[in-house]
Amino acid sequence: MRLLIISDTHIPRRARELPAAVRDEVERADVVVHAGDWVDLASLEDLRARSHRLVGVYGNNDGPELRERLPEIARVTLEGVRLAVVHETGQAKGREKRCAERFGDADVLVFGHSHIPWDTTAPGGLRLLNPGSPTDRRRQPHHTYMTAAAADARLSDVRLHRIGPA
């Protein structure tokens, strides 16, 4: 099962649409995971229409229309991989410990908010992934997103993709 992992798209504030590379990945992905800060309801509806399956949450920049349609935390099992998705996890210091305590029943936690790509494993085995942002790099050198594969209760081939020059 192929996963596309994105967050912090901020459409239409930071971009009018997703970059072409991300749109192409939507077509290839079995599941699109979005960790919040959509900003615009139309971007949710568009991604939902083009995705084979969408798992998403709302972020701190998402208003009432998005909060009515999306949970704060999503939990799903994909090919045996227990996945949790949330927008915010707090400061970087102590993140692994906090998240392992809060999401100890998951194998993988996808989060956003910081726009900083992140891939670590907490004590106990929880893997934490932040794909950065494909539209708002802030102080990062590149716009980014992630892909991964889920099979046999294992997440593999996790890859951070850079979009275009900085």
Structure at a glance:
This is Phosphoesterase. It is built from four helices and ten strands; from the N terminus they run E-H-E-H-E-H-E-E-H-E-E-E-E-E. It has 166 residues and is α/β, with parallel strands linked by helices.
Structural write-up:
- The chain is of the alpha/beta class and 166 residues long.
- It has one domain (2-163): 4-Layer Sandwich (Purple Acid Phosphatase, chain A, domain 2).
- The chain is 20% helix and 33% strand.
- The protein contains 4 helices and 10 strands; from the N terminus they run βαβαβαββαβββββ.
- The strands form 2 sheets. Strands 3-2-1-9-10 form a 5-stranded mixed beta sheet, covered by helices on one side. Strands 4-5-6-8-7 form a 5-stranded mixed beta sheet, with no helix packed on it.
- A hairpin with a 2-residue loop joins β4 (73-78) and β5.
- The longest helix has 10 residues, at 41-50.
- The protein is globular, with a radius of gyration of 14 Å.
- Belongs to the metallophosphoesterase superfamily. YfcE family.
- This is Phosphoesterase.
- Its EC number is 3.1.4.-.
- GO terms for molecular function: hydrolase activity; metal ion binding.
